[in-house]
Amino acid sequence: MNRLPVATLLLLATLLLASCGSDDTRNTISMGNEFTKEGTLSFVQPNDSVLRTIDIEIADTPQERARGLMFRRSMGYDKGMLFLFDEADESGFWMKNTPMPLDIIFVGPDSQVVSISERTQPFSEEQILPTAPKQFVVEVRAGFVDRFGVTEDMRIRWQRTD
Known about the structure:
The chain has helices spanning about 5-20, 25-30, 60-65, 145-150; strands at about 40-45, 50-60, 80-90, 100-105, 115, 135-140, 155-160.
């Protein structure tokens, strides 16, 4: 007759332990941190030649823009995230809950790069501001801008994957 309470306690202990885990583990699962290709984005030089094309995730809802690349630990040089805004403004970005450094590329409504913030500080809550109104923002792995030579005289061209 003592087996039932012992079995119940073992079951409860197992469930309790299974629900425990680091915040990083729970956030990885709940935040959906697997890369999902939603389109492609090209960095276009002034002579209209394509410098580099990457696969992108697209953040076009308030929830997606707020989450961004939070909790992501790594990303290849062939991937990034494109943030879409309804109107151009000079609001900034931050690195809260983002463990990897990023290059942040601010882009105006005409698809022209307006400013670049390189090698941003992980987990920082300091605002990273564009130098001119932006309507799009591209986040890529830190070092991307230097590695591929992205400059403020370039434009972006992007499309959603069907």
